[in-house]
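In this supplementary section we document a worked example of the pipeline. Step one takes a protein sequence of length 136 as its only input; no multiple sequence alignment statistics are reported here. Step two produces a three-dimensional model, which step three serialises into structure tokens for compact storage. The input and output of this example are shown verbatim.
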Amino acid sequence: MSAIQTSPYINFQGHAREAMEFYQQVLGGTLSLYTVDAQGVARPADPGDSISYARLDADGVLIIGSDGHPSYPPTVGDNVAIAVSGTDKDRISAIFNGLAEGGNVKMPLSPQPWGGETGWLSDKFGMNWMVNVDKA
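The serialised model returned by step three reads:
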């Protein structure tokens, strides 16, 4: 059975680079910032690019975030989700489906530009989840 992990996923609504660089300054670790070009291809973000995916790995701490989408601004409390990810597609799909029971699927697991799959939902307790099937 492959490992899975959880982390917070934060919609910084346009401030992902600033926030994630601050967290890296405080926590240390490795920060990856990505953007998506007009064709939907992910690439490392240059200064001034919108951040579609940010990941900070620091001594057991994992924080994932993005700038969000301007057409879908989060409401208070809706800007944070629990992210669960792993490479075992069957296991992660089962987790997604289990969490969705009695909840609300906001986006089914679907292919993403970086090669994995992502889905969004709120569970029956109102908790937001981002579920990722990572590339093996």
